[in-house]
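Prompt: For my understanding, could you write out one protein's sequence and backbone structure tokens?
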Amino acid sequence: MAYHSPHDRSRKDDEDDPVEQMISRTGCAELHYAVQECMAEHQDWRLCQSQVQTFKDCMMNFQNARKEQLKKQQSASSESRPS
């Protein structure tokens, strides 16, 4: 049986993992993998704080942009409704 690195993007099971799918849609996947690689290397999350913070910042930016997009959609749909 061939060994697969946890960061081998060609693995079939990543395609079925809802968390992997969600993270890939955020644009922050590479930062997520950096956190995983750091954790695998050091086995201590305290040594990976810069990677964790960078990933967290990326996710916050995505969430804020998503909120803005939803607000615009809601205001556009409420403006187009007849009163």
Notes: Residues 28 and 57 are 9 Å apart (CA to CA). The mean pLDDT is 85.
